[in-house]
Amino acid sequence: MSKIEIKDLSLEYGQEDKTFLALDHINLKIEEGEFVCVLGPSGCGKSTLLSTLSGLSDPPKTGGVYIDGQKVEGPGKSRSVVFQNYSLLPWKTAANNIVFALNQVDKKGKKEAKRALALQYLKKVGLEGFEDKLPDELSGGMKQRVAIARALAVDPEIILMDEPFGAIDPKNRLQLQELLLKLWQSEKKAKTIVFITHDIDEAVLLADRIVFMTPKNVKADLKVEFPRPRIKEDLYKNQDFIFFRNHLVGLFYANIGEQIGGEEVVI
Amino acid sequence: MKKKLLSLPNFLFIFLIFALFTPNVRETDSPIVLILVIIGIEVIYIAYMIKNDVFRQGKNIVTVLFVLFLIWQLATSKFNLVNQVLFPAPENVFYVFVTQWKLILTGILSSLRLLALGFFYSLAFGISLGLIVGWIPVLRETIYPIAKVLSPIPPIVYTPYVIALMPTFSSASILVIFLGIFWPTFMNMINGVSAIDKNIIDSARSMNVSTPTMLFKIILPYSLPGIMDGLTISVSFSFMILTAAEMIGATSGLGYFVQKFAAYSDYTKELTGIIVIGVVVAAINYLLRVVRKLVIKWKPLV
Fold first, then answer.
1. What angle do CA A125, A131, A134 make, to 5 degrees?
2. What does each C-alpha distance from B86 to A140, A182, B76, B81 come to in angstroms?
3. A101, A196, A221, B163 — which has fewest CB within 10 A?
4. Is B206 an interface residue toward A (CB < 8 Å)?
5. Is the pTM of this model over 0.90?
6. Same domain? B38 vs B107
């Protein structure tokens, strides 16, 4: 049985008379411990797909998402989410944001133990000494580090990431990508990660598998065979990488061509 | 430092004190309280001046205050240019603090007690009901339009009815203040809940929080700065309602104090009452600002 199974999933937005079909009969399987990047242009429904996985979306029109064979009806302890926009509670310090998340999973545990765990995860993401800072006092990259620490600290089986590095400058982004890979590989039992992005290089650097989406549907499902650890500079010199990357760029442009012929034009 | 000391307020201060020790045309009470008040202002001004390099604002405020005192004093006690009954001398107005201190003090305490109780109930109900109604769509759809009709009714119009309705004046005042503060708090809270940052809500929902946690640990703290800002306006507003109510039916309180002496055309004491009310409202507002600074140290993320 696959860890995540998306069966015949369709989702509609809007009220009764004015609806917009965001996802159209999608089928997809994701295995345990797999790092999957969902790649696609803006407005293709990739973030909507993630919200059905996290349980934050409206109920689907057809089909559904199954985790370990159980249909997803709402958010759950087995999944944690890292959003693009800062989702930390601005009145809580870095450590307390993590403690708050821990409290939601474990109502009983001791306060000191939770704080110790929070500090341990902050250290893992390189934020030792920043535990008592408010989010407002942290840079964008640091805030996302806290968000990653928070997502990991609750020890979920699946981590859902919705363009988490989209608003980060390139230098910091590379550092965060490397950090994420390091953390993912250092876990005893690898967590399943679904990572939404529109950045081709990011997808190739991170993923075991790239799911390419066109509006409303999955267009291609590609394995990424490059050995780990992947170093960005080395990848750029690799002929296979250049070929693979061009193929993905081609998918992006093919998609635009189709849209100009169709009803929607997205540039 | 020398230049600072030679500023306009200090000259005005010396002039005021000098004027107070020279003979008057109009006969007045002892100027002692007025002198103490003026010295008090001067001391605060000098302390402020020593602490801050930039004090233009403080300087201007004190200048205006002293000029007003001076005009008041010259027009009344010094040259007796205006009607004695309608324009009492500042010496007399401030001397009321000596003769009526007991009534003023009990008035302040009684008014503050009613204000605090009315405030407590309206905030407790306004915030918690506003959170719940704002969060549950069915309740919001039903109650919000009704509340929109009821909330703009000025609470003062209820006053005579409420005083007749309630067994004691205290309970009536508390109810009137409640009506005055509850509606804006309730409406603000409903609006606040629907306007809350979607990122925060999604993030909390993805952590699978319970409804009480969502309401009281996410939405309430998020709305707290807005609530605190609203309080400053509400305090002045409820004090207005309270003193109005006290002028109708109370046997103590600051509104009663003002009303009682107005009935005997004792405008000296009435002016004292007005000054006290002004100072009390300003002090409460100042206190609220201090509390806000202490409680809320965070800024929303952009």
1. 110
2. 64, 83, 10, 12
3. A221
4. yes
5. no
6. no
